[in-house]
Design a protein that fits this description.
The protein is mainly α. About 65% of the residues lie in helices and about 10% in strands. Strand 2 and strand 3 form a beta hairpin. It is a multi-pass membrane protein.
């Protein structure tokens, strides 16, 4: 009987931490602890993690946690600086702003590394992840105000890819 209960619990909560996080975020976003919001949050917390089981992602293993701290030390200032530059470019810049696409050769292949890099680039204003070719390792990204494609590709390799390799690969 105990094994049955454990299997049911594993079926009900395949990712308990994700379920708890979904519920907490739902309640925070709605700024309410009403029974209706708690019920909706629980419903979402029980169903949303099921979609994660269909991803078939390899187990997450962080090899060097301090490299993750260093990566965050690069990402957070870059996001703030990029916010400032994009705001300035939109509000005060004339037609001299040049948007463009950049090809970045990547050596990372871990799904976790690539997903994290996609989140970083998308969270940084003025940049967007367009596509990644796993055969060639080339990332295509869009940049709102492109000055030097080679410099940007090098910065991504130095500031993000290097640390992602240490964290996940």
């Amino acid at each position: 009987m105990r094994g049955r209960a454990n299997r049911f619990l594993a079926w009900l909560l395949p990712w308990p931490a994700v379920s708890a996080l979904v519920l907490a975020v739902w309640l925070l976003l709605n700024q309410s602890l009403s029974p209706g919001q708690i019920f909706l949050g629980l419903l979402l917390a029980l169903t949303a993690p099921r979609f994660l089981t269909t991803l078939d992602a390899p187990p997450l293993r962080i090899r060097r946690p301090w490299a993750l701290v260093r990566l965050l030390g690069n990402v957070l200032p870059d996001i703030f600086i990029s916010n400032y530059k994009v705001t300035r470019a939109i509000l005060f810049s004339g037609p001299e702003r040049q948007a463009g696409h950049v090809l970045v050769p990547l050596s990372i292949r871990s799904p976790w590394s690539l997903a994290m890099l996609a989140c970083i680039l998308t969270a940084t204003p003025g940049t967007a992840w367009i596509s990644f070719n796993p055969q060639t390792g080339l990332l295509l990204m869009h940049v709102l105000d492109l000055k030097d494609a080679d410099e940007l590709a090098g910065a991504i390799t130095r500031r993000y890819e290097r640390w992602l390799q240490q964290v996940f690969e």
